[in-house]
Specification:
The protein has 152 residues and is of the alpha/beta class. 48% of the residues lie in helices and 16% in strands. The structure holds D-ribose. D-ribose binds next to helix 3.
């Protein structure tokens, strides 16, 4: 898959550690920054990554900030994006199976690189269940975008 990745100044170290790991899993990674500790604004990086996923230019997106929370809030404002904040393996699997999330968010100040690698691996490898219950619920989420005329 083609993976778009981005981070703010509180997440770029974990991003830079994860990129070779994701490549070793066999994926193409496009890095949208940032790449240094100078203070930046997480929404600027969330929208870069999420625009690519929403447009189909990337298959999935990964976002990292200090907590992962700001990135998640910003990402879920982009029509077509279903972003989950994940810091455990159970949620990494469940959010693919149940929510068909296309963007993963994590907090560098919350988890270490070992757990982050395992989360990324299971999130990339797990398929959406396609079960009617989950498809129906994801469609209801899309209907919320329609209600507020958010589809691109
Ligand atoms: C930056 O200090 C921090 O606020 C940001 O990385 C993120 O945690 C916001 O949600």
């Amino acid at each position: 898959m083609k993976i778009a990745i981005g981070a703010d100044h509180a997440g770029y170290r974990l991003k830079d550690e994860l990129i070779p790991f994701i490549q070793q899993l066999g994926h193409e990674v496009v890095d949208y920054g940032c790449s240094c500790p100078d203070s930046v604004d997480y929404p600027d990086y969330a929208i870069e990554v999420c625009d690519k996923v929403a447009a189909g230019e990337a298959d999935r997106g990964i976002l990292i900030c200090g907590t992962g929370i700001g990135m998640t809030i910003a990402a879920n404002k982009v029509p077509g994006i279903r972003c989950a904040l994940v810091h455990d393996l159970f949620s990494a699997k469940a959010t693919r199976e149940h929510n068909d999330t296309n963007v993963l968010s994590m907090g560098e100040r919350v988890i270490g690189p070992g757990v982050a690698q395992e989360i990324v691996k299971i999130w990339l490898e797990t398929e959406f269940s396609q079960g009617p219950r989950h498809v129906g619920r994801v469609n209801k989420v899309k209907a919320i975008e329609d209600k507020y005329q958010l589809h691109p």
